[in-house]
């Protein structure tokens, strides 16, 4: 979970930090409409980090997942095929065939 949080932080805050560094160290910087749009987008990305973090903490936390499954059990019901009956039937058929072959081999001699 820590890796995900760090990656989200870098992705969300990286653009505005790069923009500010560019703006500070580039001596011929002239604001224009394109730069305004980039800066607005970068600010929105940094704000998005604050709204995404609680979701990540929530969905990646074991206690939240347990509570979520308890609250919405119908979302997690999986139809599981009962393979025990099929395997018992297959095993019985194999034993029956093996017994028949054993009986046939004994009668041939």
Automatic annotation (TrEMBL):
This is G-protein coupled receptor 54. InterPro entries: GPCR_Rhodpsn, GPCR_Rhodpsn_7TM. It is found in: Cell membrane. Residues 1-57 form the G-protein coupled receptors family 1 profile domain. It holds the Pfam family 7tm_1. Keywords: Cell membrane, Disulfide bond, G-protein coupled receptor, Glycoprotein, Membrane, Receptor, Transducer, Transmembrane, Transmembrane helix. It is a multi-pass membrane protein.
